[in-house]
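Bit of a strange request maybe. I'm writing a small parser for structure token strings and I need a real example to test against, not something I typed by hand. Could someone generate the tokens for this chain?
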Amino acid sequence: MHWRYYLPVSLLLLIAVACDKQGKGEESAILERTDQYKTAYNQKDIKAIGALWAQDGEFVRPDLGVIHEGRDAIEKAYSYAFAKGGDAKIELKVNNIAFPEPGSAVQSGVATLTKGGQEISKTVYKAVFEKNDGKWLIAKVSEIEQGDAPTNYEHLKELEWMIGNWIDEDEESENSLEFSWDRYKNFITQKFTLVSEGVFQLEGRQLIAWDPSQERIRSWVFDSDGGFGEGIWHKKGDSWVVETSHTLADGSKASATNIYTPIDKDTYRWESTGREVGGELLPDIEPVTVKRVKG
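Reply from user aminoacidic:
Good idea to test on real output. This should exercise your parser:
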């Protein structure tokens, strides 16, 4: 083929850069429209919301089996929602913006409604924008309300007394512990830090969870030395007994039985028995009292 059938590389690069800048400019315009929507929604400005929609826009609500067609119907839907929902506020997380063809954009994201600082609903949405007389307008919005996330709280709630900050200390060492729920109460995360005579020694994390396949509570721990392990939990009387096995940083194996016994809401007793490292038995760790850090 003759060379004149090819554009110069420099011209191709210029075209690519120009297209990229144009794409980013259009994306910024879509995000600006999204911010305008959020502001109008939180101010309960129905006319400002309506002005962001195309005259023949569609608002699809599969959760209610309803489609609001046309700007007037959409404004009425918002009016009803605001009267019913009170002072609910909206937050929008944009996940993606695509331009399938010139003058058309598709945005996907998550809309979260809060009231009094508490989340009341979360919705996945897809919004189609169309450019009309140089302005991006909302042509269609489809949303799907997310159901409540599954939770294993019922299986873990007996360990809820652990949640909070704790300390085990004596004249020589200090072990700080923090237990917290994940968002949906499917896991309890423990962070621990050991300091001896004012010098940092070790830190790590433990994840406590319900294993539905084995129908029991299990845990996994990782420390700053590179060691890791797991445990199997069961309740015995008032105590929680944890059968643990570990791989230490040097590759050797270790095991122990750790026992947590709550005394009251601010105190629990911890001890470790049957300790073994590399096939050698170690002395038990006598019960120590762990206290809740208040304030």
